[in-house]
Specification:
By secondary structure, the protein is of the alpha+beta class. The protein is built from 13 helices and seven strands. It has a five-stranded antiparallel beta sheet. A two-stranded antiparallel sheet has the order 6-7. Helix 2 crosses helix 3, helix 4 packs across helix 5 and helix 10 crosses helix 12. It is globular. The termini are far apart. 27% of the residues are buried.
């Protein structure tokens, strides 16, 4: 029966192909399932919350939330996901990523993140930060406010422009937690040049010092746990940082005055040197905040950039201190 003999192997190949595809789909499903659990746990730990805390925010039982975090949910409805996004204090981009991972669709267009949760309760502090935001917006360089956990409280438009090409991420967006972005976001190296030696190691050194000062801080402990889960970062933290500090000294880990390089999405800037300026004020210090500004240098041979006073500055001819005479004087 030549016809049946010929059909037999073809059917077998088809079945084998279907089984292979089914196996691949099952593997992808398992990875997605683990990713779903990881997103909820990581974000909860990032906020320093227990399962009991989050259950209270959601007004459900601890057992019910535990099932959510373990992925034991019959259906992820918009209502459940939006409640999670609110309880986990997610930004619009984080909520978008949550919906994409959980149900492979966008969140409802009417939902907007509540930015109010980042502002202090004290009315005087809130007013100060609103005015300080206007001050930061007047600065042409990327500038942001961070606390001791590197949680970002404020950014200006120049900061947002520098990181505009960064893809969504559930826990490591640059305008949510700058340390997590540097350490864990896959796009960090595309913006931060010399990513590992110039950005990761100094920030890990500062993180180690912060954790030594506040070992019970839940936010810092959450970052430490995430570092421990990444073999590369754990090796850098345990062995690379001590060696680096012994070679360069503790002062090399300071943010203020450090010179780094960034890759700006605007081709007029491109690969550009920047100096980090870290500063605070009495009011900011009272809120536990520090302002970090990345002072970008004009690229070598780049276009002349207008100054507010009507003059111009290039890389070779820049503004100078009045107390320091120029070479021509």
């Amino acid at each position: 029966m030549p016809h049946l003999a010929a059909v037999g192997p073809s059917d077998g190949l088809a079945r084998a192909g279907e089984e292979r595809l089914a196996g691949e789909e099952s593997a992808r499903g398992a990875v997605r399932s683990e990713r779903r659990k990881e997103i909820l746990r990581q974000r909860r730990e990032e906020l320093g919350l227990s399962q009991e805390d989050l259950a209270a925010r959601l007004r459900i039982s601890v057992r019910a939330y535990g099932n959510w975090e373990r992925g034991l949910v019959k259906e992820w409805t918009d209502r459940k996901l939006l409640a999670l996004a609110e309880a986990l204090e997610m930004s619009e981009r984080q909520c978008f990523w949550l919906f994409r991972v959980m149900v492979d669709r966008d969140p409802p267009p009417t939902w907007r993140a509540a930015e109010e949760n980042r502002l202090p309760e004290d009315p005087a502090q809130r007013d100060y930060l609103c005015d300080y935001a206007a001050l930061m917006e007047a600065v042409p360089y990327p500038s942001f406010l961070v606390d001791h956990r590197w949680d970002v409280a404020l950014t200006n438009s120049a900061f947002d422009q520098l990181f505009q090409s960064v893809r969504p991420h559930p826990t490591a967006l640059p305008d949510d937690n700058f340390l997590r972005f540097v350490l864990f976001h896959p796009d960090a190296a595309a913006v931060l040049e010399d990513h590992e030696p110039a950005w990761c190691v100094p920030l890990l050194a500062r993180f180690a010092a912060a954790l030594a000062e506040a070992p019970e801080d839940e936010g810092l402990r959450s970052i430490r746990q995430e570092v421990a889960r990444d073999p590369f970062m754990e090796a850098a933290y345990r062995y690379g940082v001590p060696h680096w500090l012994s070679t360069h000294g503790a002062a090399a880990a300071e943010q203020d005055g450090a010179v780094r390089t960034v890759r700006h999405p605007d081709p007029r800037w491109g690969l550009v040197r920047c100096r980090m300026v870290a500063e605070t004020s009495r009011m900011l210090d009272g809120m536990g905040l520090i302002r970090v500004t990345l002072i970008l240098s004009a690229p070598q041979g780049g276009p002349v950039r207008p100054l507010r006073g009507g003059g111009a500055v290039t890389h070779q001819q820049g503004a100078r201190l009045r107390a320091v005479p120029s070479l021509g004087e």
